[in-house]
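Dear H.,

Thanks for agreeing to be a second pair of eyes. The structure we're designing against is below in token form, covering all 123 positions.
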């Protein structure tokens, strides 16, 4: 597993996965392709998704973001950027669509203690 990647897992029943290891050191650069990419959110605290994505918005690179529940971030003509996701959450994955390849940099201090995370997976 890569710290900069998100993963889509299909299961037959609701379950959880235990992931153990060292926390991700920040800042971390997440390379994004033109078109769709899926990323995880490796920080240990939620962050306002618009604030995290602001550099991509400022550079006119971001087209759309979708979370696992169908929430989205997208520029709506006549309205501006609409965020129904709210915060990026630790352990969650996000689809991000860009019009060019770019890099998203995440900043947040983390502890250096080993951690175990339980990630819920729903069928």
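And this is the sequence the design step returned. I haven't edited it by hand at all.
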């Amino acid at each position: 597993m890569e710290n900069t990647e998100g993963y889509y897992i299909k299961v037959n029943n609701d379950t959880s996965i235990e992931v153990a290891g060292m926390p991700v050191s920040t800042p971390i650069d997440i390379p994004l392709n033109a078109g769709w990419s899926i990323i995880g959110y490796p920080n240990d605290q939620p962050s306002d998704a618009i604030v995290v994505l602001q550099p991509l918005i400022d550079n006119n690179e971001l087209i759309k973001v979708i979370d696992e529940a169908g929430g989205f971030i997208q520029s709506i003509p006549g309205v501006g950027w609409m965020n129904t996701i709210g915060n990026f959450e630790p352990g969650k994955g996000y689809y991000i669509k860009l019009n060019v390849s770019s890099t998203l940099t995440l900043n947040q201090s983390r502890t250096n203690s080993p951690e175990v995370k339980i990630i819920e997976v729903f069928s």
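Two observations from my side: Residues 49-58 form the longest helix (10 residues). The chain has one domain: 15-121.

Warmly,
E.
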